[in-house]
Amino acid sequence: MATLYEGYTLCGVGPVQNSSNIGILGVEQGRDIDYVLVTDSSRSITVYKVSDQKPTGSWSVKQGQIISCPAVFNTQSQEYVVVTDDRVVRVWKEDDVNLEKAFKATVSADVLRVLSATDSEPVVLFCCGAVRFLDSLLASPQQPIEDVLTEDEIIRWSTIVKAEHQLVVLFSTEQRGEHCLYVQRFNPNTLVKHRIETEPGLSAPISFSATCRGSNIHLLYLYLNGSVYESVLPFRSSSTGAEGVQALSCSLCLSLPLGEEKLMSGAAVVLDEAHVAVIGFPHPSAGACKDYLCIWNTHFQTLQASKEMAGRIYSQLWCYSGKLYVPHGKMLSVIPFDCQKSSLAAAMGKLKQTSRSESKSRSFVTSWTCSDVTQTTEIKSRMSTRNNVKSALTVDQLVEHIKTSAVEDVQAEVGEFIRRAPQADLQLAAGRVALELVSRSQTDANFYPQCAFLQLLETRYLCYSVCPELLSLAMVKKDFHLCQIAFQIFSDIPEAVTCACLKAILSTPDLEMETVNLDTDSVIFMKELTQAHSRSDEEGGQLNGFCPPALESDVSDTPSNKLQRDPLSLDMSCPVGLHKGALLNEVLQTAYSDRSLLPHLKDLTVPQVIVFLQYLRFLYFKYSHDAHKQIRALRTPSISQIIDWVCLLLDAHFTVLAVAPEAKRLVFDLHKFVRSQVKLYAELGKIEGSLQVLKNSKQSEDFGMYAIQVIELF
Amino acid sequence: MMSTDLRSAMGEFKVHRVRFFDYMPSGIRALAFNQDTERMAVARMDGSVEVFHCSDRFFQEKIIPGREQCGIEGLSWVGERLFSAGLNGGITEYDLTNQKVKYTIDAYGGPIWTITGNQQGTHLAVGCEDGTVKLFEVNEDQIQFERNLDRQKSRIISLSWHPSGSKIAAGMMDMIQVFNVETGHSIHRMLADRGAGTSRSKECVVWSVVYLSDGTIITGDSVGMVKLWDDQTGTLIKSHNVTKCDVLALSVSQNEDSLVAGTSEGIVVQFQFVSMVLEKDDKEWVRTRTFRNHTHDIRAVAEITTAVVSGGMDAQLVVRPLLDKIEVRSAASALRKIHFPHRRLVSCARKSGLMLFQYPGHLELWRLGESEGKGTPGSSLFVKRNPEKLLQLKVKGEDHIRCSAVSPCGGWIVYSTASTLRLYRLHCDNNNISITKISKLPKVLSSANQLCFSSDSSHLFSASAQSSVHIASLSQSGCKFVGTLKPKSGSHQAIHLLAASEDGKWLASANSDHEVHIYNLQTQKAHCTVPVYSSAVTAMGIHPATNCLFMMHADQQMFEYSIEQKQYTDWSRTVQRKGLHRFWVERDTPCLNVMFNPQNPSHVILHDMYMLCIIDQSLPLPDDKTQFYNQLTLKSLTEEQRKSQSHAFKVCKTFKDILCVELMPDQSLVVVERPLEDIATQLPAPIKQKKFAT
């Protein structure tokens, strides 16, 4: 989920001198993240401290001079750089008052922009496409500048991307309706030209945004028809530019809805890997009005947040350190935003798909057993929000507290926060709080707020992808209760983690496990299961009259006369303790894909495999024998889940089980039983055939008014 | 052909399943129960009157066919005499011996809505459209108009005599009148309430009234109420809302402790006169049971000794036993639904593959289709030629057909109504059908109770009055009277069954007094009489090889009587000694045809409404421990095992709602079915009832 917070005005936008749409020339990062450099389209450059909404410095050029590109801050030399009248480069420091007295140099060609990235030398991009580092240019200002672009090729957009101490300058050009992207890399200097190929009929891209992710540059560009395309460029290119023009492969990653009005402009900026902020396009449900700032999720194509912008939109949008800068009307607004790590669940606005009816009912019951507190507190919070909204902690405050406070305080505060926060906010905040709690727990060995974790889980706003570390933390801390709840609530646990948990559960001794406090329902189920076993033993008979005769013939084949026993008195004792069984049941019920699970299952040691298989066999026998009786429990593994796990386990450890002597008996029993089941089902299949014939014979009654049939009497 | 028959002992049969006989039973309009003779008289919408024997498995003993436009509204027994009255304004007495109308006299009061006789058997009262209640004196051989009671303004819908015979209650529009029979004056006038709301404007029709000996008058009306009135004060004692529709019929039991009401929703509601407090004597009428066996209006109900009998627009007669009045649970105490008449409506010309269907007002002659190829048991064969309707013969006059027959060769058709008998010569050259009526029939052949051709089609046997059978010889030139067969002694009841032997030597007749006479056709003399059995004969046939008469009775017993030796055969004695299987005896529809398989002399083929049965006299009889319906079991056994498992009764339940089964000379069977669902779809729509979720 993403949110747009309440924005504030940074400064007014000066009267538009020229007829262009540009309200301000640019907003650039200042000397640290709290400072921005605003170059307006008149003649002034102003530095603002964003959090204070106050200007800390302002410079302007003399009348008659024109600032031709946005000013930038050179973080290396702590100097500001601007170009006036296309060719005059001016450099000054914070404490220089008059721009006229600052250093200036006239270069031999028109400068398009000065591009600056943090901790690196600014780069000067000329209108002709040539690129120079600022320091080398100023060393000899009149050096000849070569023409890179052809005569009528105009640069439409440019940016600089920095990663791994490597700078890349990107600029796009337009020439007779053809759009190209140039990628300028340094050391060695290479310039690669890409042709932007899109579907025919599309006009020019109206907005670009580039970010660096991993070793690739992700370039996002927006068309007037609402399509947002993404192209991925390798950061380091082996090509030298000699290959000529390369086609730029692109993929459509978002289609923005269009209103009825014809759009003239718009802007998009990438916020993170999944989110993009768009301005100038209509809100899908707010009619034709296009004055909206929207955050879209490109993974799920969903609108995540939106904000109406008053006044005229300039189709300009900048994003620096968690804040969006939007000129609109007569002001430049700063809008802080927050993009949560996106998961499908979060994007859908729900955390968990409850697929089975029993799990639905479970959610009700658990709220009775352990979280009736939340029920009452919900009411309480509704009452209290009216009275003392102010006293509730904000997420930021809470996160700060988590970093420093003691465990008890943190738990109390988290509890209080969950109770007080409105549901919508909680959805966003829960993940952040959990992440913070986990990261503190990981660094601070004494810090483990189990209660807070449980409370957060019970909000059901968490899922595995929101806070991946939580489960492994719980494993490290041997907090099996938390594990169990997480298994019940998370639907997106990766198979590797499931296996790791399984391994941890299997390797923990039963004695230690019995002391763990677990969900009572699951323990009761295990108790019933094991007791049902002893009861039916006492009765000593088969309840459903199932008697596979084939088993006896098998017995004679086996050399071991130990097996000369009632074929049905299969080993029905539970190989693990109640609590371990309950936890294993939770593992059995997790969602998985067998192909992903199989390699991880191989990590189990042989004893673990045997114990687990014994337990699965126990469950399988149990279920097959007591199929007629339903143990009342809210969450039980189904017979098909059990069988699937048996298959997986056998697949994963086939050779081990074939070789290990201690597994022989187990596999033998399992095989025998499965064979008898197969025979039973084969017989049932025959009955099915007969029943089908009976059914058909009943149906074929209608033959109309006349028929000649053959009957046979015996 | 022979090889297939040899392959299995019983073998395969090719079956023509015929469903194009559109027989429609007529709705039931009135019921009258005679306690003394245990006979139930049933009047139908088409004017026919039937008499069922209640203690003989409700066998339909007598059928008096109706006539057009006769519209019976009421039936009443006076002693053993049966009277009906109808909207044509006449009162009819029936000659039950000869199964025909005895006479009809006009009551001169317009349409008659109701007729009822007093318990003393001296008078009949009829309720007329003109508002009069007319009293008729019942004389020895006639009835005579005696007088009118005070004339009322509206029509008399229902009447009931006080058991003493001194008072009469009459149900009318919106009111009930109580008359003193002596003076003819009205004693009380009781107003029946109209329904509430919109139905307020509609008159309340008092459809039925019952006068009890304690002076209570019970009425059923169109508002859906059953009301109890006191005839002393003329006041309402109690009222029960039974239905939202009409209460159309009421009937009280003989000892006046139980009352049943039939409604237009098709339900029967029982009321019982019971004491509310144990061992106290103040009794009240309490609604006790509800029976739902009908889909349509119940037009008549009758409470008999052990059961409630009801009938209505859905044309079925339902006998619902009252289990509290039954001491031994038996086949006789089961719920019984009578859909089809216990007479054959289909006759087959076996040698030419023709079938004659008898409808009330016309006959249809059909030719069976032909198949091609062979099929495995259970399969349908390809129909090479479809069945074909050759002829439709409409009856002259208003009387409905009483009986009909087609000769085995297919050359003659004969039918009889109450007044005439007509014989036709049928010429069938390929596809050209022509028919000529034989004129100048012998005078004795004026009307017949049953008709039958000899197996070589050379003679026609016509059962007539006095249990006699006339013989006429048939030839190209026409029909010539040969002689009359008369029983030596015994009753004069009408003959309902005739059976001629294959060799043309013997003729057997059965009448409704259960007498079976056998005549020698060569001498034209009575040969012998089969000992009279207590239950009616429902079907009989003479074996072509042994000349033994095989008889089926209404109580499902079977006898085989050797004509030549004039005694029961050994097999028959064995059957009687060992007894029949429980399941066989408990079947609730009579067998309607007895056939023999010339290729397998030990086989007797029988059928009733639900099954077809081949009795193999060479096989052991089943006792009560053996599995009776064993066809499915036998099917799954091997040839060897079958031998030990088989018994004499091979029952095939593949077919249902069977009207007729006939064995053709080519060993194929004709099964004429009339599915009840088809009948139900042709009935008028029942009263629309709101059902949940519809």
UniProtKB/TrEMBL annotation, chain A:
Residue ranges crossing the lipid bilayer per the database entry: none
One GO process term, biological-process aspect: maturation of SSU-rRNA
GO MF terms held by the record: RNA binding
GO CC terms of this entry: nucleolus
Keywords assigned by UniProt, alphabetized: Activator, Nucleus, rRNA processing, Transcription, Transcription regulation
InterPro entries found in the cross-reference section: NOL11, Nol11_C, NOL11_N, WD40_repeat_dom_sf
Main location: nucleus
Domain annotation Nucleolar protein 11 C-terminal: ranges: 409-714
A Pfam family annotated for this UniProt entry: NOL11_N
Domain Nucleolar protein 11 N-terminal, chain residue ranges per copy: 1-337
Keyword presence, rRNA processing: yes
Compartments reported by the entry: Nucleus, Nucleolus
PANTHER family: NUCLEOLAR PROTEIN 11
Protein name, entry field: Nucleolar protein 11-like isoform X2
Automatic annotation (TrEMBL), chain B:
GO MF annotation list: RNA binding
GO cellular component entries: 90S preribosome; small-subunit processome; t-UTP complex
Signal peptide start-end: none
InterPro entries: Quinoprotein_ADH-like_sf, UTP4, WD40/YVTN_repeat-like_dom_sf, WD40_repeat_dom_sf, WD40_rpt
GO terms, biological process: maturation of SSU-rRNA from tricistronic rRNA transcript (SSU-rRNA, 5.8S rRNA, LSU-rRNA)
Protein's recorded name: UTP4 small subunit processome component
Species name: Cyprinus carpio
